[in-house]
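From the shared-data thread, chain only:
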Amino acid sequence: MERETMTLANRQAEPGQYLTFVLGGEAYAIGILAIKEIIEYHDLTEVPMMPPCVRGVINLRGAVVPVVDLQARFGRRASEVTKRTCIVIVEVATQDERQVIGVVVDAVSEVLEIEASAIEPAPSFGAGIRTDFIQGMGKVRGKFVILLDVDRVLSMHDLAVLERVAQAPALEGAQR
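Structure, as tokens:
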């Protein structure tokens, strides 16, 4: 817990292994420790009255897992599903527990080791432009990879919505 509190306080990307993926033609990465697995994109169960970034839910070995379209989460149009589209299953920290969430990405690239010397701080664009979800900018082979803070990208407010999605089927079954 102490380490988690420290990470939350400074929000600087740490050197280590990152899963890189493509989203809208840009390279992004998430720390490998947050990744549970990568699965092929398959049919989702749509849940009514969800924000546009929530694609629906999947059944992952009996567990209901909400699936978020990162491209839509970033305010862009929803990702198109292709042969390379994947769902990256991540574990994010909530206030007192961990939540499993699927994230739609255009394609998974590779796992990279990014050294501290190759990580720049998140850029500052000025007032009104959010960068709190960016842990840093990794320099890889002469290009930048945006290192995402998965706990912030899927923020507490969004997690509350996603938690209700995951609980809805259980509640429906209890009411029958």
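Confidence is low (pLDDT under 50) at residues 1-11.
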